[in-house]
Design a protein that fits this description.
Low-confidence stretches: none
GO biological process, one term: fatty acid beta-oxidation using acyl-CoA dehydrogenase
GO molecular function: electron transfer activity; flavin adenine dinucleotide binding
Helix content: 25-40%
Structural class: alpha/beta
Family: Belongs to the ETF alpha-subunit/FixB family.
Shape: globular
Mean pLDDT: 95
Binding site for FAD: 211, 236-237, 250-254, 267-274, 288
Radius of gyration: 21 Å
Number of strands: 17
Bound molecules: flavin-adenine dinucleotide
Distance between the termini: 51 Å
Strand order of the largest sheet: 7-11-6-1-4-5-12
Keywords: Electron transport, FAD, Flavoprotein, Transport
Strand content: 25-35%
Number of helices: 8
């Protein structure tokens, strides 16, 4: 059963976030041989259309307006709904990012559509599309289908592999007009917290520290290991509460949910609330001096030892591999 599926391309600092390409791959599954239409919203984003096409979109629809320079629920929902009304899709896919989590429910309610959020697997099964999503903070998974109306879902970053980039692919990139008006919130300026390196939610490698790291100073050796591996630094709430690092690094039930290829937990006990944010990582390495620590129950590889000895040794060894 072929369908037309809209996929939102998420733009940050002038480039598409990786989750946009993962969403195109999910959109292809939902489309089942039908058409995947990329959607770009912003004030100057048309040039990114070719990237969506090279990653598998068949064509791209662009809405540009000065009022769309920065994200707002009002502005982006008006723009996206204009595309929905002109395209009349059978499916919609967003990334399950801060933007997607804000925008998707608003669009779904306007369209009177069901919404499956935070899907980690998308599969075509007969006449339905089956979405797998975590429940109970990741302790179990449920499979869901939408039986009536638009198939609308958000997908968790780093779970669905994007298609291989094909630079020979071409497709139409078309701008449509949408009236963006009556905005209740206008973002004048975005002031970013100074943060360096890889974005935590899209990092392939995360080196995460807990209360066992003992100080902000202690996090420096984790940062060195992360840098050698091309990864990002994360933290438990214990470490954030103790003031060792910023809450923006917190991983878990009340922090970020991450699914990197490699998660190295250093001095983290493995409380259920922490596991909720990282237990779906592809490979988990735990370093803890307590052999009974719960983190070892989810780890693929465990190192019982003092992180202040183990982490610098790992950094040295990985540096040798890079030479
Ligand atoms: P601890 O539990 O104190 O563990 C420190 C570990 O370090 C110990 O296992 C110890 O053996 C080890 N260690 C000490 N020294 C060394 C060393 N030199 N070398 C190696 N290992 C060492 N927590 C989160 O992380 N994320 C959340 O989103 C979150 N949300 C929560 C929401 C609610 C509603 C509640 C109630 C709690 C939440 N928590 C969350 C807190 C959670 O319950 C734990 O308190 C927290 O995860 C513990 O952090 P920790 O593992 O760093 O510290």
């Amino acid at each position: 059963m072929s369908r037309k599926v809209l996929v939102l391309g998420e733009v940050r600092d002038g480039s598409l976030r990786n989750v946009s390409f993962e969403a195109i791959a999910a959109g292809k599954t939902v489309a089942e041989g039908g058409e995947v239409v990329g959607v770009l919203i912003g004030d100057s984003v048309q040039n990114l259309g070719k990237d969506m096409i090279q990653y598998g979109a068949d064509r791209v629809v662009v809405v540009e307006d000065g009022n769309l320079k920065n994200y707002s629920s009002d502005g982006f929902s008006q723009a996206f709904l204009a595309v929905v009304h002109s395209e009349n899709p059978d499916g919609i896919i967003f990334g399950h990012t801060a933007l997607g989590k804000d925008l998707a429910p608003k669009i779904a309610s306007k369209l009177d559509a069901g919404l499956i959020s935070d899907a980690t697997i998308v599969e075509a099964a007969g006449e339905h599309v089956v979405f797998t999503r975590p429940i109970y903070s990741g302790k179990a998974f449920e499979k869901k289908i939408i039986t009536d109306g638009i198939i609308f879902a958000t997908i968790r970053p780093n779970n669905i592999s994007p298609l291989e980039k094909d630079e020979s692919r071409t497709g139409d990139v078309q701008t449509i007009q949408a009236e963006i008006k009556d905005l209740r919130t206008i973002i004048k300026e975005v002031i970013r917290k100074a943060s360096e390196g890889v974005d935590l939610s899209e990092a392939k490698v995360i080196v995460s520290g807990g209360r066992g790291v003992k100080s902000a100073e202690g996090f420096k050796s984790l940062k060195e290991l992360a840098d050698v591996l091309g990864g990002a630094v994360g933290a438990s709430r214990g470490a954030c509460d103790a003031g060792y690092c910023d809450y923006s690094l917190q991983i878990g039930q009340t922090g970020k949910v991450v699914t990197p290829d490699l998660y190295i937990a250093c001095g983290i006990s493995g409380a259920i609330q922490h596991l909720a944010g990282m237990s779906n990582s592809k490979v988990i390495v735990a370093i803890n001096k307590d052999p009974e620590a719960n983190i070892f129950n989810v780890a693929d590889y465990g190192i019982v030892g003092d992180l202040f000895e183990v982490v610098p040794l790992l950094t040295e060894e990985f540096k040798k591999l890079k030479v």
